[in-house]
Write a structure and sequence with these properties.
The protein has 14 helices and 11 strands. With 333 residues, the chain is of the alpha/beta class. The chain is globular and about 70 Å long.
Length: 333
């Protein structure tokens, strides 16, 4: 029995390695415009392959928007950008019904949400009404306008940027909406050498022209292959243990975390941790998931799903520190 499984894994590994060859081309295309930020590029690829929305947080000027636009340019698909502002209305995002005098009837004018890739720039500058309008689109891949429901194109991916909450003129996103993002990636400043390359690149003519190398169908087919990546029952148990440790830390020898966590990850955290781990293994050209894959994506999947208590905030405890303690405590298979 074990021999057959080994043969299956070997065959699967070879197939995944062949079918993930385009990942290198995507990374090379991203590298033309993005200096460093390897983690950011990997996170965008995970979102693309695992069919999950991605939220990027960082101060302005860290190439968040550029990274998303470059990825969209590498795929021959519809791309739209929505600049979120305090006066934005739901109809500006979803679309609305327009009365036509010629036909004496109402016609739909679709909004920018009807695209394969939607860049929601500075998403936390818009009020709650606009955020709630995005919820249905992100979760159900459909939009309701007036009495009608319209399907969104496939693939459909929301790639959002947000400024740190401490910045002026920003609104914290509702928990229900934040939970719809598979990953929340914190984008940091580049290293000195990287910043020198960025300066040189922009002084010598700016960003390179990007040509599409994939079609939307290629992404849909790649997502089917990602679902074939093998995940052992021990890895599944490991993922469930990590998420349960955010809810009941005392069961994992982490009593001190009980007072610091207001609420833990939902089942959506478990699902997304599994999906992101598979996509990460695919990016690494591997047909099976190992514990290191789970640990690699864990921070981005969980950091926005752990609610901090007042005590944690008073002691400047971050969700990243809590995740680190959980990963150190939960037994690795």
């Amino acid at each position: 029995m074990e021999t057959n499984q080994t043969v299956d894994i070997r065959e699967l590994n070879e197939r995944i390695e062949r079918q993930s060859s385009f990942v290198d081309a995507l990374v090379m295309g991203m590298d033309k415009n993005i200096v460093g930020q390897k983690h950011l590029v990997e996170a965008l690829l995970i979102g693309l392959l695992a069919d999950g929305h991605v939220l990027l947080e960082g101060v302005p000027g860290l190439a968040k928007t550029l990274a998303i636009k470059t990825l969209a340019s590498l795929i021959d698909a519809d791309f739209s950008r929505i600049q979120f502002t305090p006066d934005l209305l739901p109809a500006d995002v979803l679309g609305t019904m327009i009365y036509s005098q010629k036909t004496e009837d109402f016609n739909i004018r679709k909004g920018p949400i009807f695209a394969n890739f939607v860049l929601a720039d500075e998403i936390n500058r818009a009020p709650a009404k606009v955020q709630s309008a995005l919820l249905e689109a992100m979760q159900e891949k459909q939009v309701s306008i007036s009495e009608n429901t319209y399907e969104l194109p496939n693939p459909f991916l929301v790639l959002a940027t947000q400024n740190p909450i401490e910045q002026e003129g920003t609104y914290p996103l509702p928990e229900a909406q934040v939970d719809r993002f598979m990953l929340k990636v914190v984008v940091n400043y580049p290293k000195k050498e990287e910043e020198r390359l960025i300066m040189r690149q922009n002084m010598n003519g700016g960003n390179a022209a990007i040509s599409p190398i994939l079609k939307p169908e290629d992404i849909i087919n790649a997502r089917k292959v990602v679902k074939d990546v093998y995940m052992d029952e021990k890895i599944e148990k490991y993922i469930v243990d990590i998420v349960f440790a955010t809810r009941n830390p005392e069961e994992y020898g982490l009593k001190e975390l009980k007072s610091q966590i207001a609420f833990g990850g939902s089942p959506r955290a478990t699902i997304n941790l599994g999906l992101a781990s598979r996509a990460y293994a695919f990016i690494k050209r591997r047909g099976y998931v190992v514990p290191e894959d789970v640990r690699a994506v864990c921070y981005d999947v969980l950091r926005h799903r752990i609610g901090l208590s007042y005590e944690a905030e008073a002691n400047n405890v971050s969700s990243e520190e809590i995740i680190s303690e959980i990963l150190n405590a939960v037994e690795v298979p």
